[in-house]
Amino acid sequence: MNSSPRQDAGADLEVFDIAGPLPSGTTILEASAGTGKTWAIAALVARQVAEGLALEKLLVVTFSRAATQELRERVRERLIRTELTLRHAIAGTDPPHEVDRLDHAVLRDAVGQAWPVDELQIRQRRLRDALGAFDNATIATIHQFCQSVLRGLGVAGDIDPGTTLVEDLSELIGQVVDDVYLARYRRQETPPFSHAIARAIATAVTGDSAAVIGPTDADADSLDAERVRFGEAVRAELAVRKRRLGILSYDDLLQDLAAALADPQAPARERMRQRWSVILVDEFQDTD
After folding, report:
1. Strand pairing partners for 248?
2. Using one digit for the tens of pLDDT, what is the confidence trace for 111-124?
3. 46, 80, 103, 183 from 88: Cα distances, Å
4. What is the pLDDT of residues 153-188, one digit of tens each?
5. Gap between the Cα atoms of 238 and 260, Å rounded
6. 165 - beta bridge partners?
7. Model's pTM, two decimal places?
8. 223-245 vs 170-185: helix axis angle to the nearest 10?
9. H-run or E-run covering 141
10. Shortest CA distance to 236 belongs to which of 288, 276, 152, 180?
11. Taking a C-beta distance cutoff of 8 angstroms, is the pair 131, 46 a contact?
């Protein structure tokens, strides 16, 4: 790869070069499947560490538990390989593997001159220390990351340490729909809508509990307004029961952390800035 710009669909894009200047600010690497995205993430971790960033200051997020495990293994393998490369360079011997672009990036400065031995020793020590503390590396799914942050916030995060994360709330939602439907319409000979429609409304409003339930301008006596009121009642009751049962859904994690960070002066923001300096997000298009 090289760092010269190229044209793509009318936009100016730069080809990513692991040996070039490290990205700063918000940077998106766009690539097709099989072109080395995981390699690039692992290489970025190794280079950041070699150049002085503590491993604990790096946050690596991906989209599934399986992908997390694979990425964790790839990052560790890259750290081992780069540390070995430096060790052989210090000894003046050839490493047992082919030297790739990342190896060149950690062995030479920006103008391609080999680093002196004392600098190579410093870089090797950083990588060795990172491997020794590798269990403390934050490589997680987006939901694991949210749960970890919320638990670490204490009073700044609205989450009970004993809360259980559940994948499927459909049974609980069904119970809430039944109870709210009966409570609201049991005295009416003809309810405003069927139980099946009630379940459809509940599915819609609980699928994204941060979304606004609408229409918001419906006439107070209209059927649409009653559907909105029913949806709001279901959402409110579900929240009460989840708290009572001590459970959270995956969406709750995203929304609770977003709420904790909503205020520009929120202490959670400063804690996260202190905790992580560099964030690498794998498969960014799969996050919401």
Report:
1. 165
2. 889 999 999 999 99
3. 17, 12, 11, 74
4. 764 445 565 678 888 899 999 999 999 999 999 999
5. 21
6. 248
7. 0.76
8. 130
9. strand 138-141
10. 180
11. no
